[in-house]
Amino acid sequence: QLQLVESGGGLVQPGGSLRLSCAASGFTLDYYGIGWFRQAPGKEREGVSCISRSGGSTNYADSVKGRFTISRDNAKNTVYLQMNSLKPEDTAVYYCARQTRSWVVGCSTSPRNYDYWGQGTQVTVSS
User: Fold this and answer.
1) Burial 50-74 (b: 16+ CB within 10 A, else e)
2) 117 Cβ partners below 8 Å, 6+ apart?
3) pLDDT confidence tier of residue 105, bands split at 50, 70 and 90
């Protein structure tokens, strides 16, 4: 059974850090790019970052460049999102998802290019 399970969310003060994990099972992780997305109340889901299947290509939303870092450990079937210098506007439910097409060289932060999604993990940045 294909699954993506996010963890690592929580409450953090502005300027703090969190590391999210996305544990994959039921498919061969290193065949697929993985994306991180977020959705705040009343807003559309937006792409935060993505990483290609090899890890050689990454993309970031302008709002998180220089603060967030995506990485993957295919041996552990896990993709990470390190979030530093967090701001209140980063507050959202964060989701990881699997890129629909396998063996793609790069990756996209458009949600329409992803098929399987995790259940999400809440990140709240507040003092």
Assistant:
1) bbbbebeebbbbeebeeebbbebee
2) 4, 95, 96, 97, 98
3) confident
Give 31-64 pLDDT, tens digit per residue: 999 999 999 999 999 999 999 999 999 999 999 9
**How many beta carbons lie within 10 A of that of residue 93, not counting itself?**
18
CA angle 113, 76, 3 (to 5 degrees): 45
- 20-23 long-range CB contacts below 8 Å, 24 or more apart? 20/80, 20/81, 20/83, 20/94, 20/96, 20/121, 20/123, 21/78, 21/79, 21/80, 22/78, 22/79, 22/80, 22/81, 22/96, 22/118, 23/77, 23/78
Q: Which of 20, 46, 52, 58 is nearest to 112 (CA)?
A: 46
Q: Are 48 and 37 in contact (CB under 8 A)?
A: yes
**DSSP assignment letter at 111:** G
